[in-house]
Amino acid sequence: MSTPSRLNAAVLGRGAREHALALRLEADLGPGAVVVVPGNPGVRGSLGDVSTGALPAELRRRDVSLVVIGPEALLAEGLADALRAEGFAVVGPTREAAALETSKAFAKSFLSRHAIPTARAHTLEAGESLRSETPWGDDAEDGGVVKYDGLAEGKGVIVCESAEAVRTAVGELRARYGPDARLLIEERLLGPELSLMLLVSDGEAVLLPESRDHKRLLDHDEGPNTGGMGAFSPVLAADDPLRARLLTEIVTPTVRGLVADGLRYRGFLYIGLILTSDGPKVLEFNVRFGDPEAQVVLPRIGGSFAELCLRCAEGRLAGASAAALDHHAVGVVLARAGYPTTSEGPPVCLADAALAPSGRVHVCVAGALRHEPASLCFTRGRALTVVGLGPSRAAAREAAYARVGSLGAPGLVHRSDIGSGS
Fold first, then answer.
1. Average pLDDT of each block of 10 consecutive residues along the chain (422 residues)?
2. Beta pairing partners, 412
């Protein structure tokens, strides 16, 4: 699969996911061929803030033809639709299709309509009080999961271990998002999780390497949910029969369902799964690359990722495939102390040299807000993802944590168990 000569690309967004996308596209297209809008001080090619109205002209000035949209908020605003109307090849679904992520109730209806396995659920409409007729029963020992029906940067979900905790979570989310917030109450499913990433284009799909992320803040999957504290890839053995089952039961009906519902989809589709004793079930859809999943999946894609993106954006994905490279990747997220609720203490500054790629390790920068002489300073949220590569997960993990240990940043926190499980 070859990439057209003289192709320039733009990545829209400012986080570590967008840094990872830019690094991978630049590896295919060459130095200087990728710009990032707005990016951040730690990402090469960052242009800074550009208004939506001025964006098409700025991209044309830089001879950009391929646009890859990172964050879900931009897709929810309809930016993919607007840029397509301006003649750009865009990786990102329409605003209508983005409802698969922006509305948990919409996604649940899609799953039910197309008989895709998922948790039983009840939608708690605005002003509706929690009743005992929830699908799993009021006395269920496994509790439930309460989800805000809107964008919440991965932090609008509370996993509850009892019926009483479900009631408490409903109150907490309505205090946070408003008394009329629409909520989804799901049964709590048990089992290991798996993240599937696809490129989808007009009824065709390419399956990218799978990964597993760690959503909880603390070791042993304790503490509050976050946007993600780390990830690793691969999860499954190359010959694992589960792969065929996932294609048959999850991927194929999802892609066909998009076509059947008239949802024009050209972009990344993240399917969050849980592997229960009854088989795989869908936990959520994201209409963009996961973060931190992108940081560990992108280094494992063989061939030209830029060509895959262009074919996706132009509706030419039929017959395409993405080979998974043999090496493993482990990504460890470092966040400001107090994340995900507050930011504590003065800015944390790290030397540029400490963040430079070296050997089997590279760093994707997320929360850098300013660049001081020879250093980056972080003041909030997730700051960076340290990615280690190796011939085994253990080797990749060792490489990542060796770099984490060398940073010496007491104002940043991280989990110590990323990639240590099965």
1. 75 97 97 96 94 97 98 96 98 98 94 97 83 56 83 82 87 90 91 95 97 95 93 90 94 98 98 96 96 98 97 97 96 95 84 92 90 84 97 98 93 96 69
2. 336
SS3 content of the chain, % helix, strand, coil (to 5): 30, 30, 40
211 burial level (CB within 10 Å; 0-12, 13-18, 19+)? buried
Please check whether residue 35 is in contact with residue 62, taking contact to mean a CB–CB distance below 8 angstroms.
Answer: yes
Q: What number of other Cβ atoms are within 10 A of residue 209's Cβ?
A: 24
CB-CB contact of 188 with 159 (8 Å)? yes
**Around Cβ 32, how many Cβ atoms within 10 Å?**
11
- Rounded Cα distance, 250 and 377, in Å: 42
DSSP 413: E
CA distance 95 to 343: 32
Both tokens assigned to 261: 């519902």
- What is the three-state SS of 82-132? HHHHCCCEEECCCCCCCHHHHCHHHHHHHHHHCCCCECCEEEECCCCCCCC
Nearest to 29 by CA among 59, 74, 66: 66
Pairing of strands 34-38, 9-13: parallel
Q: How many CA atoms lie within 13 A of 342 on its CB side?
A: 4
CB atoms closer than 10 angstroms to residue 315: 14
SS3 370: strand
Altogether, the residues listed in the chain come to a count of 422
Q: Which domains does the chain have, with CATH numbers?
A: 9-91 (3.40.50.20), 120-187 (3.30.1490.20), 191-313 (3.30.470.20), 328-413 (3.90.600.10)
Asked whether the whole model's pTM tops 0.90, one would answer yes
Distance CA 212, CA 378 (A): 26
Start-to-end Cα distance in the chain: 33
Two structure tokens written together for 286: 């994201």
Give me the sign of the Cα torsion angle 192, 197, 202, 203.
Answer: negative
Write out the two tokens for 119: 């948790």
- In 3D space, the residue among 268, 269, 206, 273 whose CA is nearest the CA of residue 246 turns out to be 273
